[in-house]
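User: I've been going back and forth on whether these two constructs are worth ordering. Before I decide, could you fold them both?

Assistant: Sure. I'll take them in the order you sent them. The first construct and its structure tokens:
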Amino acid sequence: MPEVAIPRYTGKAQYATRILLPNMLWGRLLTSPHPRAKVKRLDVSKAEKMPGVAYILTPGNAPKSYPLPDELFFQGEIVAIVAADSEDLAHDAADAIEVEYDLLPFAATLQQIMAPDAPDLRRGRGNVIRTSSQYGDVEKAFAQADVVKEFTYQYSSGIPVPLQPVGGVAKWDGDKLTFYGMGQGIYPQRASLARALDIAETNIRFINKWNGGSFGGAMAAARLNPWIAYIAKQTGRPFRLTLPKDQELAQMQVKPANIQKFKVGAT
């Protein structure tokens, strides 16, 4: 048996979301139940007073270099992140947060978003990317083809489901950050984390010794890392966030739904 496999089979492999550090805080997300909404009122006062609750990240106190938005564009988007002395306490505190939403128009299918009266989900910004690749005289080839067919395929969105739970652990020593995380390349992960926190890459040690699958999901999980690190910095304690499967599926939508149109000629 390869030596690298033994810790996996014996349960001794220290995946990022299994890291336990002294005095560590545990996290829980509060997420939106609506497909699109704006946070009208967010009251964390009851949750903050609960014993064992150390910090609650909201749009009001999130870092300016990596804000937590108050306009939400999908069911399951993050509203707040709770840090507490135990996972159960964090869960209870998240449930105690009071939120009022202004519900906004939304689109649930590609046909709806491409319709003339579709809601503006990008605040006037375009999202069309054009690429062109051509070899030879395409129109001449179609004219000479014995058969020309046009058809359309539609694909639903794809969500990766790696065995390893999504999350990470952050620990600061002065201005030096150690981050235990998932990844498909630790250096891009470190670079994006440095940009989000506005610190030097040399101040970050990103550890990803064991990876329990990704399928593209580890890249999507990276969007959580700056908030994990920020909460650890604000509290002065190591902070661990591990997503339950329902929240993981909402956060890790890697492949968007798409419609593909083809025109093919054959001779």
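The second construct, handled the same way:
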Amino acid sequence: MKHGKRPTLKQRERISKLKYKGRNLNPENWLVVKDTSEEFVLVNKNSGHQEKYSK
């Protein structure tokens, strides 16, 4: 698995609007693995769980 990087301000704003299991994500708990025009891939700092979101 790739290592994530700390999200930028714009990425943190986007992460806080995303939903996982009906709840908003906390940007402090997620790292950005991939941010392309098609998808946004995040990995959780604590559990290592990876989530993919299409744009």
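Notes on the second construct follow. The longest strand covers residues 30-35. Strands lie at 19-20, 23-24, 30-35, 39-44, 50-54.
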